[in-house]
Specification:
With 525 residues, this protein is α/β, with parallel strands linked by helices. The chain has three domains: 130 residues, Winged helix-like DNA-binding domain superfamily/Winged helix DNA-binding domain (Arc Repressor Mutant, subunit A); 119 residues, Alpha-Beta Complex (Aspartate Aminotransferase, domain 1); 238 residues, Aspartate Aminotransferase, domain 2. The strands form five sheets. It has an eight-stranded mixed beta sheet, with helices on both faces. Helix 2 packs across helix 3 and helix 7 runs parallel beside helix 14. The longest helix has 26 residues. It is globular. The two termini are 36 Å apart.
């Protein structure tokens, strides 16, 4: 386990350590009951004093993230009703594997937060696995958090509000599938060759036409095809962000981007938003103290909040990037999914000096499994990104690129017009249900586009307990805390109205509303 520490002042070292460990705990990389490294061993590995590590552990204990056992060490604490649950610790560790078997059965009295004890066979299987794979627990990694992985596996949820995705019945899967079938039948050699590192030229030319119609005048030479915008975010981070670099982003922000920048050891600074998007006035003051290496933003129907940045702020943000000679990553998954009127022009459309790396997903609104997006940049910035792409995967699959090309070239605009109508109907239906059935004290704003509703609940609501109660009813949602860098408390949840049929979505919301009411009254079980 490695933790990147910034020693240039600012955030105290104990706080950096406690936040890094806390993020590992909340995202499941350090699971409940796992033993943490000793104070002495962690201090040596990080090059800090034992007092610094002791303060970090004390902060984690105060927040209920770990518990200390006299003579045994510190263990990740399971949570129940917001408090640590006694008697559920596992020997072995993320940093100190152990063959000790002391402690008896009380280590296992309450598996997974419940009151039922597993049988001897389950205990024996766990013990066998620890003996077989226990060496791995001491094998170092560079993952500071993994919320995207931990919070998007809800395969058994009947009412899946957690995933910002579009129901398959609304997607042009038949047309794209037929195009792929024809390509395989008539040009099977496509499966035997690598694609161009930058992406198929024909597809880039089609995407160029698409972007020009939206005010972004670029040539095909300025585009690179990636396997989704997630890969684009990762390529930018691996190319331009390193330990201690300052990355500014909205609060809240896209979970996948936070994971990537955290993995690079960046110092992430969150900037609050209001109804007009990121507070550029606050960002400017922060930049005076910590100059930015990169600013990440989802300015249009922001994920998760649904907020759209005003045109004035887009202009000011670009001016700030020019003054600090830094990059803006403009992530644009939803601008074609507006409900009432088109959103403001992209930041990239105003960029004259190559400060903006623009990313647009096509597969999200066509066929997510195809993983097709474009990254737009100029000059040496793009060349370095293409080099990183080549080292990453030798180019995105050519078959996928050619399968979506005809649809983007011919039917995309008419299709997205129908899709907007369908998504608007779902959003308005969800908003009506919330207005009618949500308990008093639940707040939200109807977005002008996109896929999500961002609900603010009273601070007294235990989101973890609400999540577990909803799961028992087959309902999934995204807990708001995973959309923040660091570990701030959050009383938000994100609900996607696009992933289900309208009737199924309505049934799920009607099941969720009583659970919200119980949670707000402190009676949830």
């Amino acid at each position: 386990m490695r933790i990147e520490l910034s020693r240039a002042g600012g955030k105290p070292l104990p706080l950096q350590i406690s936040e890094a460990l806390g993020q590992r705990i909340s995202s499941g990389l350090l699971q409940k009951g796992v033993k943490l490294p000793s104070v002495r061993k962690l201090a040596v590995s990080l090059g800090v004093s034992q007092v610094t590590v002791s303060k970090a552990y004390a902060d984690l204990e105060r927040r209920g993230r770990i518990v200390r056992r006299q003579g045994l060490g510190c263990f990740v604490a399971p949570l129940k009703d917001g408090k640590q649950e006694a008697g559920d610790y596992r020997e072995g560790s993320a940093g100190l594997p152990s063959d000790r078997s002391s402690g008896g059965g009380n280590f296992w009295d309450r598996e997974d937060g419940g009151s039922r004890s597993p049988g001897r066979s389950a205990l024996q299987k766990e013990a066998d696995a620890r003996r077989k794979f226990g060496w791995q627990e001491d094998y170092g990694d560079y993952l500071p958090r993994a919320q995207l992985w931990r919070n998007f596996d809800y395969s058994e949820a009947e009412y899946s509000f957690h995933l910002a995705a579009i129901h398959s019945g609304l997607l042009p899967l038949k047309e794209i599938g037929e195009a792929m079938t024809m390509l395989v039948a008539k040009r099977p050699e496509l499966m035997s060759v690598y694609g161009n590192f930058q992406g198929d030229l024909g597809l880039r030319e089609v995407m160029t036409t698409h972007l020009k119609a939206r005010g972004i005048p670029l040539s095909a030479a300025s585009l690179m095809i990636t396997s989704g915008t997630q890969q684009g975010i990762d390529l930018v981070a691996r190319t331009f962000v390193g330990p201690g670099d300052t990355v500014y982003l909205e609060a809240p922000s896209y979970t996948g981007a936070i994971d990537v920048y955290a993995g690079r050891g960046a110092e992430m600074i969150s900037v609050p938003m209001d109804q007009d998007g990121m507070r550029i006035d606050l960002l400017t003051k922060l930049c005076d103290r910590r100059p930015p290496k990169l600013i990440y933003t989802v300015p249009t129907f922001q994920n998760p909040s649904g907020v759209t940045m005003s045109m004035e702020r887009r202009q000011r943000l670009l001016e700030l990037a020019r003054s600090y000679r830094c990059l803006i990553v403009e992530d644009d998954p939803f601008s074609d999914l507006y409900f009432y009127s088109p959103p403001p022009s992209s930041i990239k459309s105003m960029d004259k000096n190559g400060h903006v790396i623009y990313m647009k997903s096509f597969s999200k609104v066509l066929a997510p499994g195809c993983r097709i997006a474009c990254v737009a940049a100029e000059g040496d910035i793009l060349e370095r990104l293409i080099a990183a792409k080549a080292a990453s995967d030798l180019g995105s699959p050519l078959l996928n690129q050619l399968a979506v090309l005809p649809f983007i070239a011919g039917k995309y605009d008419a299709y997205t017009q129908e899709l907007r109508t369908a998504l608007r109907s779902r959003m308005e239906r969800a908003a009506r249900l919330l207005k009618r059935h949500a308990p008093q004290g639940v707040k939200w704003s109807s977005p002008g586009g996109g896929l999500n509703l961002w609900l603010e609940l009273p601070a007294s609501v235990n989101i973890g307990e609400l999540y577990r109660s909803a799961s028992r009813q087959g309902i999934s949602f995204l807990a708001g805390h995973v959309c923040y860098a660091g570990e701030p408390s959050s009383s938000h949840i994100r609900l996607s109205y696009a992933q289900m049929e309208e009737e199924q979505m309505e049934r799920g919301l009607l099941l969720l509303m009583p659970l919200l009411k119980e949670a707000m009254n402190g009676r949830i079980m």
